[in-house]
Every structure is written in C-alpha cells, then in structure tokens.
Amino acid sequence: MEPADPIARILIVDDDPAVHESYRMSFTPSADKAALADLAAQLFDDVAADEPPPLRLDLSHVHQGAEAVAAVERSVRDGAQFAVAFIDVRMPPGIDGRETARRIRSIDPDIQIVIVTGYSDFSPAQVAQVAGPPDRLFYIAKPFTADEVVQTATALSHRWLADRALAETRAALAAKIDELEDQARELAANESKAIRLANRDPLTGAPNRLAFLRILSEQARRPGNFAMAMIDLDRFKLINDTLGHLVGDELIRTICTILVDRVGTDGFVARLGGDEFGVLLHADTADDAVMRCERLVRACSGDLQVFGHPIHGAASIGVVMVSGEGGRESVDVMRRADLALNEAKRSGRGVVRLFDDSMDESIRFRRRIEEGLTQAIANHELALLYQPIVAHDTLAIVGFEGLLRWNSPDHGAIGPATFMPIAEESNLIHDLGDWVLDTALACLAEWPGHYVSVNFSPRQFRRQNFVGHLVEKVQRAGVSPDRLQIEITETAIFDDAERAADTLYRLRQMGFRIALDDFGTGYSSLYNIRKFALDCLKIDRSFIDGMGRERESAAIVHSIIHLARALRLQVIAEGVETEQQLQALRLAGCSHVQGYYLSRPVDGAAATEMARDGKVPGAAQPAVDPARP
Ligand code: C2E
Ligand code: CA
Ligand code: CA
Global pTM? Predict the structure, then answer.
C-alpha cells in the first residue's frame, strides 16, 4: 500500500464570504489542470523528479479573529496544527488581523502567518512587532490571484512539514542522548562502586592490600621522606582458636578503628590481610617514625572488650624509613618493613623495630662480598684461568679466554657470575679489571703467538679514556695490541651506540681485536651490528646447548654463522661440550670453538704448556677430515 499523501491544514480568516469563495475556487483543481498534469506525467515520466512530493491541503474557514484564535487553540490541543493561516487585516466588528496574528502566534509558535493586506493597512514591521518571527510571517496584497495563494500555501506547507519532520528527528535524537547519558552515569556509578569494592577490605571497610600498594608506590615515587609501618597482632591465632572467628573478626575491626583514629589524616591505614595492617606515616626522621609507632603499639595494647570478652590486645610493628629522592620501589619498601616486623616478633612482642640494612640477608651478602673483594687483590685471592679457543678443523689453539676466579677465605671459590655484578656496581670493577688485564698480558708474554681474550663489563668499556688506558697497558707489557682480544657484550654497546661505535673504531685502529660476547641473547638485531668494528662473534652457550634439542637454536646458530661470514667475521661457538655439537658446528661452517669438550679453563702454567704444544691435550687428531666436510 502506498503511503497516503501528507496533509497540511490551512486556516483562512476573513470576514467577507466572497473572499472565502475565491479561496475555495483557487484551491479546487480544475479538470484542465489535472488532465494537463497527467499528460505531462505520461510524456516525461521524470518530470516529477524535481517537484516536491504531492501534498493534500485541507482548508478551514473562519470569519472572525476570535474564531481563528479558538480554531488554533483546538488544533494545538488535538495535535493537528495548521501549517499556514491566511489572515485578513480588517475584520469588523472583532479584533483586527494584527491582533489575531499576535494571539495565534502566542498559541502556536510554528504556524506560518500570511497577512493579506490592502495599501492603507499596517506596515509589515508593525505586524512583525507582535507576530514575529519574520521567517514565519508573509504578506500578500489584496486583491490576490489564485496562483499566488496556491503557490504560497503549497510552498509554506512543504516547509512546515519539513520543519516538523526535522523537529521530530531532533526530539528523537535528544531523547536518545538523554538515554545514553543516563546509561553512562549508571556505568560510571557501577565502575566507581567496583573500584571501591576492589580496593576495600570487606571486613573492616578499610583500604585493602591492593589500595595500599598503589598509594605506597605513588608515595615512593614522589621525593621526600615518609615511613611505612607493618603491624601484626600478637597471639591473634590463639584468640581465633579459643574464642572463635567471630571474636577474632571483631578484634580486627576494633584494632582497625584504633589505628585509623590514631593515625588520623596524617597518614594512611590499610588491612593487608589476616591480622596484618600497613600504615604510611608522614615522618621526617626515623626517631619521629619510631616514636609514633610506639604510640600505636600502646594504643593497641590495652584491655579491650570484644563481644563481652576481656582481651589483652598486643601488636608488633616493623617500620622502615623511606628517604631521599623519588624512584623507590614499593615491593622493596614492603619487604623491608616485613623484615623489620620479623625482627620485632623475634625480639619479644609488643615492640617496634626500625629496619636497617643488617636485617636484609641479600644486602648483608652484598656487603660481605664487597668488603671481601676490596681485600682480594692485596691478599692474592684472585686467579685468572685460561680456556683455549681452537680452530674448528685442526683444533689448533688460536687464543685463550681469561676467566676470573676468586678464592675467598669466607665463602670459598666464588664464580664471577656472583661477584662481578656486585663489583660492577662500585669502582671495584676497575681495580679487578686492571688486575685481570695485567695478569693476562704477563702470561701472554710466555706464549708463542696466541692472543688472550679478556672480558670487559659495560662499565669498564664506558670508562673515561678506555682506549688510551688499554694502549698504555699493552705498551707497558711490551705486547702487540693484536694479541689482545676485547670481549664485550651487546649491552655495553647498545646503551650508547654512537659512542660505542666510536670507541670500537678507535680500538680497531690501534690494532686490538674485538669480540662480541654472548651474541644472540641481547637485543641487537643481526642487521644492527654491521656498523660496529668487530673481528668476531661469540655465539652464546645457550644456543649451542639447545642445538641438538630445538630447531630454533639450530636455526639461530646457522644464521649467526651465515651473517658472520657475510660480514667477514670469525665465529666462536662457546660452551661446546660434546662431539656431536662439534660436528654440527663444523658442518654449519663455524670457524672456532671453545668449551669443556676441548678443555676446561686451566691455570696460567697449564695454558702456557698448551700454547707451546699448539693444541689441546687429547685432541691429537681432528675428528673429521677438514678436506671433506
Ligand atoms: P662468559 O664470558 O660468557 O664466559 C663463559 C663462561 O662459560 C665461563 O664461566 C666459562 O667457565 C663457562 N664455560 C666455558 N666452557 C663451558 C662449557 O663447555 N660448558 C659450560 N656449562 N660452561 C662453560 P665463568 O668463568 O663462570 O664466567 C662467567 C661470566 O663472568 C663470563 O661469562 C663473563 O661474562 C664474566 N667474567 C669472567 N671473567 C671476567 C673478567 O675477567 N672480567 C669481566 N669483566 N667479566 C668476567
Ligand atoms: Ca666471554
Ligand atoms: Ca660468553
């Protein structure tokens, strides 16, 4: 079914019945006009394209202004508003056209008013004053023609319908927006409720561990001093077990209230879990922090009434001072407060303990290593071992890697993986490095022509005038620079690639050999290393180890070797432990190998012996014929 043509209502207001008649005639389509329109439609079926859609005009006739006002009132009440009102100006004995227009406008702001006027009547401005706005107010001079009236009525009706459709769309949109805004408000409310729940401890209503950690890390990041206290109730388990969980829960709530009261707005209290609370305090000094914690302990230690049970409350506190600039780790602060709390519990209950470094085993260990290392050189506790690096085919020794050992009187033999990172954090690394270099160069003098490969940590490599320092060392030892290979890791060069590239270039210029150690474990792409002046890549042990088991490792080893060849670099495979690995590396085209399968690191005397022999003991024969790979 076709939708019905839209209807627009037209109100005609005139006191003269003859004028009404001429309106009627104007709007009645004549037979000729209809026939012509039909013919046009048949001949050119697109004529209608540019024309507005058909429209039915529905005329209402009234003879007095007051009647017109009443009709408009009714139309608004019934929701069947007029699109256009044609209003005569002079309509005795009632109100005139201007007054009619004024009243109609005040009832229906959307109606379009056409003032039908003679010469001597009001000026348009006078009408507009009372019946504006001008875009809904029009004039037709009397006497009018039929076309004039019909065109005006039709055009204004179309416009009125379009305005109404627009207004409806706007209203619908506004309603939708309201609805969406309501939904957004509801969502936000739910979200903040969820956040509140996620950050609250349900038993006490206090912030929970999550909230505490968040506030703690915010606080720790800001510069300035504060204290963190960890509070634990003494003998809580006993109370829980003997008086029941309800009493236990109530005791927790009571203690929480006491803490919140005492700490006040000058701090932050959270329940971390169980019978443990965390407190942040604004404290400038450790003394201040301890004093305030002692007050908290006293506040929790009185005789408490819990559900009618007299309970002697008691708590212990571990407190840590966080001072200095920002950038402190919250987990570290927590761990320290926890260590201090353990100390407090151990040294009797109801006490406060301030954290100090001696409570931290890992800090204690570092301290001891640092102190021990400081003496190590003077006390001759260091030794440098040498592990041969051999050619893949003939197994002839080309050089030795120097590996540091420390025989500590307190800890026994400690590997460099343990003590080098600690030395690296202090200037000790330079003393150790110098000792290694001097020792290696002295030993080197005994070997026929081999090089020694010495490890340098990133900090050593970045040392002021590193190149000059090395040059001086080799000169003093009377060794040619090409017999010293410098092993550095990717970390050392990629942190400041430009400066590293320059240092490497100058080292190469002076004749030193350069090896990139632990290759493949860092973040350098194979492509990136092009711009560094290198002699050799050392494939990390983990890949050699994985070669027989995982396809990835084998693939990485192959591509490193491939790349190295393209860049004309030697490749040393580290950590070769089996005959199979050696064979696989040979097949892959690896130029040099190093590892327990060939030799463990040995002392200087043994290395010198090997160097003079030219090969590793027990490797008299190459395992495969190098001529037939
Ligand atoms: P790195 O440079 O990767 O040294 C190779 C490590 O692998 C050495 O451990 C060596 O003993 C070990 N290794 C050699 N062949 C094999 C093998 O076939 N299998 C296995 N499982 N391991 C093998 P080490 O001597 O404990 O050295 C550890 C790290 O300490 C070195 O790693 C190096 O980064 C550092 N380091 C050692 N000496 C010095 C030094 O004088 N100065 C500096 N700055 N760092 C050093
Ligand atoms: Ca190394
Ligand atoms: Ca290595």
Answer: 0.56
